[in-house]
Amino acid sequence: METEITKLSSKGQVVIPQQIREKLKLEEGTLFIVMTQDNTLCLKKIEVPKIKTWKEAVKPFREAVKKSNFTKEDLDELIIQSKIK
Prior knowledge:
By secondary structure, this protein is of the alpha+beta class. The chain has helices spanning 18-24, 54-67, 72-84, and strands at residues 32-37, 40-45.
């Protein structure tokens, strides 16, 4: 574990030291989850998967549908019900 010292700005911003940014490949716009417990603050980088195609994006949903008993008729009924509301 690396240890560096940084400080909080008047706007509530914290600078992550360059050596740590480079090691973790942190770039501008990187998203983090911020957690606290007692007197500890923890930042965890959010890894957002890069999806190249629509087919790749919907693959998990298609697989879930195949494992369920969900039919086209079920989908049609959901669409009808959503229009009624």
